[in-house]
Amino acid sequence: EEHNRLETDRISDFLFVTEPSGVSNLERESVPGKVYFVGNVMIDNLVANLGRADSSTVLDELHLTPGSYFTGTFHRPSNVDALDNLRHLLTIMRTVCRHAPYVLPMHPRTRHSFERNGLLEELNRIEGLILVEPLGYLDFLQLMRNARGLVTDSGGIQEETTYLGIPCLTMRRNTERPVTIDVGTNTLLGDDISGLEREIDNIMHGRYKSGRRPDLWDGHAATRIVDILVRALERRPGTHAGHGARRATA
């Protein structure tokens, strides 16, 4: 996947990035195309659907009240493919559920792995753990925006929680979204259970960092991209896009 991304970067005339680190990374790659910092199209989608998510009844169906639970998803191979990793995931669930209920939409990969390793019954026995089938986007958005916090290995959730101002504890050793840590509400914990315990306690007692929305994460990234491409098409044919990075304007 990373090899394909690098090759795509090299043959692209326009490269649109979500955060300043993306500009720095592409400058290190010496890409020939023009780099634009435009914001985040995933956040565009989130903003466009916030109103629609109000119609979701998922909280009523699960008998939940806003701010009373944690949620998230786990599906990365590093967390669900091996027996030792699954046992570690059980420890994560028990740790969270000592503080508040945790709603876990079960990704098919995750469920299959628990079943294959004979651990699904043990997962079901964790007090406070609410297992549900995979949720649609609007239902999960409603579940996420009303949660006390997220504990996850998802990449997209790191971005969405930063926009929403909701604490996110990411059980991974690295992230492709450093702005969510430096600016937003995300904390990278790797496999640190004591760190997880500490940060959940901070969340429960109002001591967790507040964060802010990153620059240009305002729901208008797609508009900026379209404007840039339209202006390029209006130029005389044959003009080369050139080098350098620009911050797109709204």
What does this structure look like?
The protein is an alpha/beta fold and 250 residues long. The chain has two domains: 2-39 and 216-247, no CATH class; 50-204, Rossmann fold (3-Layer(aba) Sandwich). It is built from 13 helices and nine strands. It has helices at 2-11, 20-29, 41-53, 58-61, 77-80, 83-97, 108-116, 120-124, 137-145, 156-164, 179-182, 193-204, 221-234; strands at 14-17, 34-37, 70-71, 102-105, 129-132, 149-152, 168-170, 186-188, 245-247. Helix 3 crosses helix 9 (137-145) and helix 6 packs parallel to helix 12 (193-204). The two termini are 31 Å apart. The mean pLDDT is 94.
**Elements, N to C (H/E):** HEHEHHEHHEHHEHEHEHEHHE
* Approximate helicity band: 40-55%
- In round numbers, the mean pLDDT is 94
Classify the secondary structure makeup into a structural class. Answer: alpha/beta
CATH homologous superfamily caption of the largest domain: Glycogen Phosphorylase B
- Record field, number of beta strands: 9
Indicate the CATH class of the largest domain: Alpha Beta
Sheet of most strands: 6 strands, parallel
The CATH topology of the largest domain is Rossmann fold
What is the oligomer described by this structure? single chain
Question: Keywords, please?
Answer:
six-stranded parallel β-sheet; alpha/beta; three-stranded parallel β-sheet; 2 domains; Rossmann fold; 250 residues; 9 strands; globular
Write the layout of secondary structure elements.
Blueprint: H1 2-11, E1 14-17, H2 20-29, E2 34-37, H3 41-53, H4 58-61, E3 70-71, H5 77-80, H6 83-97, E4 102-105, H7 108-116, H8 120-124, E5 129-132, H9 137-145, E6 149-152, H10 156-164, E7 168-170, H11 179-182, E8 186-188, H12 193-204, H13 221-234, E9 245-247
Parallel strand pairs: 1-2, 2-9, 3-4, 3-6, 4-5, 6-7, 7-8
Helix pairs in contact: 3-9, 6-12
